[in-house]
Design goal:
With 356 residues, this protein is mainly alpha-helical. β2 and β3 form a beta hairpin. The model has no long low-confidence stretch (mean pLDDT 91).
Length: 356
């Protein structure tokens, strides 16, 4: 009989070994897929490396791709550590970008030193409010957070589609592109290195990871978050206001997701478009899980996925690998990483029945 039991603890060495093995197996399976398509494995992986790490500019571009994943991964860490299964990172990210753009409409010619903090704050308030709404529905009406967050994802996305597809935010003559006009230059997030679009959103995401680590490990709120995930009944008998804790967790998670949306729109694209953000929230859920629901682990996982995302663009352009194989390879790697995260958190053993 096969039994699956949670591990009491898994050292960082075991986790590192599991993820390295998952990476190797994922690339091995991808190599078989490339070979079956008739393409060159060495050429494909060479282009992948070149795109991710082949030059200083490629490394910086990988960090740009990782920036929104850090924030959505942290949003997942905060919620899932409390065993609040929020799937709303995508919608909260969109809500943050929308609220940031809405705030920019009223800032006119304000200097960037004033405009950018207001835009970021408005975005995080918008994303936090959407997350808080799901928390309120959970605590007040016992609405399952999976249902409410998934449904609100669609509400937000369709609202954005209305606003950009001939609605009040549509750029003149751009109805078919679903986008706003280009932002004023004083609304652009300042760049860190030359002309590469590595903007201040990256250090902000790292700072958010540090804050999340301190909150979870060193504060009473972090104790409540961990205890809520472990035993909410015991936490309630200890005198903690569980409703308040759930609302705080969901607001924090939503604000972190919103940070991803505003950094991607105001730091990379300079106009609000739905397609450039699609999927970043859902990928953030995977990043948080692969990171072991640890803020530092989520940062590492986001950096890896950012490198893979940037390298895969080069691989599809510079090699003869069919474009349809690129998302398939990404899916294979995700599958192996998720399998590794399960093996780290659970012990699988075979128990032979004893015959008397």
């Amino acid at each position: 009989m096969i039994t699956i039991t949670p591990r009491t603890s898994a050292g960082w060495q075991a986790q590192l070994a599991a993820y390295v093995l998952a990476l190797l197996l994922g690339f091995g399976a991808s190599a078989l897929l490339i070979t079956a398509s008739g393409a060159s494995v060495s050429e494909g992986f060479g282009a992948l490396y070149e795109g991710a790490f082949g030059s200083w500019e490629a490394v910086l571009q990988s960090l740009v791709a990782a920036t929104p994943l850090i924030s959505t991964g942290l949003a997942t860490v905060i919620a899932f550590r409390a065993e609040i299964w929020s799937i709303g990172q995508e919608g909260q990210m969109f809500a943050g970008a929308m609220c940031g753009y809405w705030a920019s409409l009223y800032l006119g010619g304000a200097p960037w030193l004033i405009a950018i903090p207001i835009i970021i704050l408005a975005a995080m308030v918008g994303g936090g409010a959407l997350g808080g709404l799901c928390g309120w529905l959970k605590t007040r009406f016992r609405v399952n957070e999976i249902i409410s967050t998934v449904m609100l994802n669609y509400v937000v996305v369709y609202l954005l589609s209305y606003l950009l597809a001939g609605g009040p935010w549509t750029a003149e003559g751009s109805t078919s592109y679903h986008q706003t006009p280009v932002f004023d230059e004083n609304f652009h997030l300042p760049l860190l290195v030359g002309s590469v679009k590595l903007h201040i959103g990256f250090p902000l995401a790292l700072a958010a990871a540090a804050v999340c680590w301190v909150i979870i490990k060193k504060t009473p709120l972090g104790f409540e978050i961990r205890a809520l995930g472990f035993n909410p009944t015991a936490l309630r008998f200890k005198g903690v206001n569980v409703t308040r804790t759930v609302l705080i967790v969901m607001c924090l998670s939503g604000a972190l997701s919103a940070l991803a949306g505003v950094s991607e729109i105001f730091g990379v694209n300079y106009r609000l478009r739905g397609d450039v953000m699609a999927g970043l929230g859902f990928t953030g859920i995977i990043v948080g899980m692969i990171g072991g629901l640890n803020p530092i682990g989520a940062v590492i996982a986001a950096l890896l996925f950012g490198a893979l995302a940037n390298g895969s663009l080069y691989m599809s352009v510079l090699s003869d690998i069919p474009p349809s194989l690129v998302p398939a390879m990404q899916g294979i790697l995700l599958l192996f990483f998720l399998s590794a995260s399960v093996l780290v958190r659970y012990s699988i053993s075979i128990v032979r029945p004893v015959h008397v």
